[in-house]
Structures are given as structure tokens and as C-alpha cells.
What we know:
Elements: H1 7-11, H2 22-33, H3 40-49, H4 51-61, H5 70-80, H6 87-95, H7 104-118, H8 145-153, H9 171-176, E1 181-185, E2 194-197, E3 200-206, H10 209-218, H11 225-238, H12 244-256, H13 287-299, H14 305-310, H15 315-355
Parallel strand pairs: 1-3
Antiparallel strand pairs: 2-3
Helix pairs in contact: 2-3, 5-6, 5-7, 6-7, 10-11
Amino acid sequence: MAAQIPIDDVLRVSLSQPPRSSELQCAIYNALWEKGHLTEGYRRRVEERLSPYFSHYESQCEDLPGEFTHWHVMKAVEFIRNENDTKAAVHQKIRSIPGCQLSDKSVDVLIHLAVRLWLMICAGKLASRVDIGQFQIPWAENECLKTITDEITSPQQRIATTIELPTTFKAVNLEHQAGMRFFWTSNLADHLLLRDDYGRPKVHIFHHASFLKQHLETGCIFLPDGFLRETLQTLALLFPQLDNQTRRWYDEKRTSIQAECQLDRAAIECGLLSAEERQIDNFLFWGERIIALKRVFDDTDPRSFLGLWRDTRKITQWYTFWIAVLILALTIIFGLVQSVTGIMQVWVSMKSLHQH
């Protein structure tokens, strides 16, 4: 049996070498979630379950300085785990690594990259890269990372209203009935964020359910359990498990954008919410953004005839409208039949006169 290569040695390869091998993926997984030695079965589970995460990892490492290795990133993650350290303190720890020859600018990029890969939050900039459509949280030198993450993960003021989110309030209907576009984001801070996209509403969806479940399993002080559970519940709300319409729609999305983004299949495997769980006041972290989505969902009229057919938000009005359409269609058809019959009768009468 071959000797196992130390994790540090596996990680000491350039970021230009993407994490596609089982060995490198498991080394990164070990460093991020401190899981220790992995059995062969668990290694396969990591490859399958976290494939969308490693796709994100690879995209974040593109076009970064060649001096960075995966080991540098994991050391930065190790340092930022200390909730009491400021960004300046983390910077100093990295510069104190024996043999470290990174410039101050490169160390800043390394710290920002570590946050993006460990917590999937865009804190600070990555060199000259422009993150299109993503919100970047500024991170000052004298601030702790916990201060930054608390802006996202702290509970909002409890919503003093009773709103039950209907079972029709799901992603497929947001698109078909309200005309929403979807932006599949890998930035947790953008989840459920609603923006205008040339006159059409666009909602950002953080789809990395496997990543959320992994942090929930291992525990993370920067991403509290309550926050992680509720984020998974928002996915259960928009992508109800066992809903065939949702499954077909999501699978089509996964296929159509595979070249741009690898959607996490686990996003539609987050369960079903009960009527009680669908009350808006149960959403302490994402409630305000859900209300904004609900408002657009209720107020936006369908943009096409097909949209009208799919729009079952107000079922009484839907039946009234389509019965009226049916009556109008039958009236037109019967009118045409009568007109054609009348014309044929006149034609037969004229032909009969000519014969006599």
C-alpha cells in the first residue's frame, strides 16, 4: 500500500493548477473543514457533493498571481479563523510565515481570496478583478472579519405582520408568472437580492446548498447555525423538494448555464416547508428580502399569453378570465360558422336560379 502524501505537500502547487484531482480536493476539504483522514467512500462523497463548490473555487483562482499556492490560501484561512484578529493582524501573521516573499498587495488579495473560498462572501477586492453583479463588502484594516460577517448573519428586526407564503410562491412561478430573471450567485451576501434588469426584476440566488450543509455539519462561528438553517429554508421555499415542475425547471437551468456556472443539485433537496414554516415572521435573517420578492410576485402582470395561462396566483380571477376567453372564442367560432352557412345558402340559391 502506497504511503499517504502529507496534506501540506499536496497543497503546495500553484493556484493555476485547478482542484480537479481527488487528492487535491480532499486536501483542500481537510484544510477548510478540519476533517482529518478521509475514507475512500467519504472522498467520493466530497467529489460528488462539493463539485459545484470546487467549480466556484476554480473560478475565483483564475488570473491570480502565479506565486500563490493552495497552501498559501489554506494558511490564510487558518489565520482568519480567529474572530478577534483584525485584517491588519492577519496580514502580519501571513508576512511572518518563514520564507514568505509576498508583497503587501499580494497578501491583501490572498486574505480576500481566503474569505471568498472559506465563507463564500465577497469581502474586499481581488486585484483588478471586477465582480459583475456582486456586492463587495469593504473590509478596513482595523476591522475583524466577524464584524463583516455580522452585517449579513445578524437577525433583522422581527417583522410585525402575518403573511403566509403560498405554495405557488416558488422559483418557477417567479419566472413564468412574474417575469423574473435569475442570477445564480456564489456570494452569500447577495442571496435573494432583488435588482432591476432593463425593466425586468432579477433575483440573486445562492444555490450552494451542499456548502451550507457542510458548514452546518462542522460548525462555524462566522456563519451561525440559525443563519445557515434559514438560508436552506429559503431554498426549500423557492425549490420545494419532490415538486416535479420545480425539478424539471431546475434541471433545464442546470443544463442551459453549465458552461457559466455549475448549479448545485442539492438546492432542490432541502425539504418541504409546512404551512407554519411558511409564515414570514419565521424568517429572521432573510424576511425583508422575501417580502420584497413577494411584493413583486403579487404586483407584476404576466407579459405574454402563455404567462396569462400559467398565472394561477388569483385562482378565481384566473377561472373568470379564461371562461370569458372561452365564451368569446365560441361566440366568434359560431359567428363564423353562421356566416359561412349563410354564404353557402346564398350560393346554392343563386346556382339554383341560374339552372332554371
